[in-house]
């Protein structure tokens, strides 16, 4: 398989995970069990789904939409994400969603940063409090355009993408971990190797940006990789929910996604597990899907899954990947 195959599977995996988690996002384990039991495939949003109420099976959310937005701006900027242009694009995206009556709007850190920009705060300072997973959920295009054999350079690119909304050690570390794992997978890394690179990138990222108190994503990921495989399979969902955490906090959801990847299960099963967790299911599954797609390539996904997501959401990931890879330096 070629780097193009792996990069395409990464974006497809992001969208597949997002779509699997769409009907369960922001719900508790009890609510998910009542509406869906355990997620085993694409399903419509159920009666307790508030954010994506009424959305049909295989619909994506802001995770995929904003990743595609980042991809477009990277290509437009010849590999650089211009902070002012990005801020303008995020504001326009939310206004368009609100005009449609959607409740799938900007996350808490991004919304705060956008409001600060509208209030006149310089773009360079707007993201000084952002610690949630909004940057990590949409960072995969940076992993496609940037190689992981120079992690300082990769984290530089990640920080550029985080500066507007998540310019904190926690925000950058979470995004750096996902981008590095995706990048390593495109170059042929195994799951374990990609996770090693993710931890190393998170360790660099947590020293960047503004300091905000919070657990080390590098240290928590290293611990979770050893801990979760020791838990019996039928207890893992409750363990991720109750011990690692599934909130929008980067030090919970990013770690949860990478811990699930570390189980070395079938990729589809991994994403269905992520979608069944409770909490920020769509983002956890999207991040795990991006990494698993990058590592395994198109064979990660069942026949027809990517095509269904593209059809339902009018997406063409091949058209997104080709110009992104053109920006990626050769070995």
List the helices and strands and how they pair.
Blueprint: H1 3-21, H2 29-36, H3 62-76, H4 83-99, H5 108-118, H6 123-126, H7 134-137, H8 140-145, H9 151-162, H10 169-186, H11 191-205, H12 217-227, H13 236-244, H14 250-262, H15 267-275, H16 281-296, H17 305-313, H18 317-326
Helix pairs in contact: 1-10, 1-15, 1-16, 1-17, 1-18, 3-4, 3-18, 9-10, 9-11, 10-11, 10-14, 10-16, 11-12, 12-14, 14-15, 14-16, 15-16
How would you describe the overall organization of this protein?
The protein has 331 residues and is mainly alpha-helical. The chain is 62% helix and 0% strand. The protein has 18 helices and no strands. α10 (169-186) packs antiparallel against α11 (191-205). It starts with a helix and ends in a 5-residue tail after the last helix. 56% of the residues are buried. The model has no long low-confidence stretch (mean pLDDT 94).
């Amino acid at each position: 398989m070629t780097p193009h195959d792996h990069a395409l599977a990464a974006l497809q995996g992001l969208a597949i995970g997002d779509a699997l988690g769409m009907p369960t996002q922001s719900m508790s384990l009890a609510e998910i069990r009542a509406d869906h039991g355990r997620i085993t495939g694409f399903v419509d949003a159920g009666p307790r789904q508030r954010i994506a109420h009424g959305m049909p099976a295989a619909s994506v959310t802001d995770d995929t939409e904003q990743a595609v937005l980042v991809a477009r701006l990277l290509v437009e900027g010849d590999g650089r994400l211009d902070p002012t242009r990005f801020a303008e694009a995020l504001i326009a995206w939310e206004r368009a969603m609100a005009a449609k009556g959607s409740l799938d709007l900007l996350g808490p850190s991004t919304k705060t940063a956008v409001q600060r920009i509208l209030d006149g705060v310089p773009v360079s300072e707007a993201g000084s409090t952002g610690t949630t997973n909004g940057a990590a959920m949409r960072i995969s295009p940076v992993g496609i355009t940037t190689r992981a054999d120079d992690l300082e350079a990769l984290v530089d690119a990640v920080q550029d993408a985080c500066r507007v909304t998540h310019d904190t050690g926690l925000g950058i570390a979470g995004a750096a971990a996902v981008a590095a794992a995706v990048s390593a997978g495109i170059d042929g890394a195994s799951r374990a190797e990609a996770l090693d690179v993710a931890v190393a990138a998170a360790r660099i990222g947590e020293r960047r940006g503004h300091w905000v108190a919070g657990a080390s994503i590098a240290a928590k990921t290293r611990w979770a990789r050893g801990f979760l495989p020791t838990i019996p399979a039928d207890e893992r969902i409750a363990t991720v929910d109750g011990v690692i955490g599934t909130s929008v906090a980067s030090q919970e959801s990013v770690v949860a996604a990478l811990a699930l990847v570390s189980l070395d299960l079938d990729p589809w099963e991994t994403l269905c597990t992520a979608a069944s967790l409770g909490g920020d299911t769509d983002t956890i599954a999207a991040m795990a899907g991006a990494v698993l797609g990058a590592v395994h390539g198109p064979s990660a996904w069942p026949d027809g899954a990517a095509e269904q997501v593209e059809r339902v959401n009018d997406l063409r990931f091949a058209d997104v990947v080709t110009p992104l890879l053109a920006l990626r330096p050769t070995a």
